[in-house]
Amino acid sequence: MTRSFRRSGALGAAAAATVAFGAVAFGAAPPAAADNGDGFEFTIYSKEVPAQGADEGSEESMAAPKAGDAFTFADDLYKTKGGDKIGRDGVTCTVVRVAGTQVDVNCIGTFVLNGGPGGQLTAQALTTFDTGSESVSAYDVALTGGTGDFKDARGYVRVTPDGDYERMEFHVNTR
After folding, report:
1. Range in 32-41, 81-90, 119-128 the model is least confident about
2. Can you give the pTM of this predicted structure?
3. Which distant-in-sequence residues (6+ apart) come within 8 Å of 18 by Cβ?
4. Is 102 a residue whose pLDDT tops 70?
5. DSSP 3-state assignment of 10?
6. Which position has the higher pLDDT, 17 or 99?
7. Of 125, 114, 113, 121, whose CA–CA distance to 159 is shortest?
């Protein structure tokens, strides 16, 4: 599995959600209010944290993915690309289908903010990746709920690769 395949399985990715309610507290630009007043939008960046002891060049990490393969990763979350760290996430992904170079990956993640409102957000996605391509397309991740201040959150996150980072555009509904 290539690094881009493993990283882009991220919800991170897969993406990161809790900053939605705390963007002003961290000095980011205030989120734009949704038309109906029930939510808002904001953007943050994630960068994968290398797993201790992981050997990306090992034979196992280079093997073609097969259904049932699973991997995990963690990201640090930033309010701007290369800016102040504002949180973290943890993601688990499982390969559920392989058809040639097309691989369907089901990922579930949890995101936490440092400071600001309390709680966590959860997200998940079934995403298709082409293991024969070094480039990864943008994909959407569903916000499925949360705890504390985020207990009624729903919406989605648009994840787009951006160099060593992933740009995450949040569209959060609070009702």
Report:
1. 32-41
2. 0.74
3. 87, 111, 112, 113, 116, 117, 119, 120, 121, 146, 150
4. yes
5. coil
6. 99
7. 125
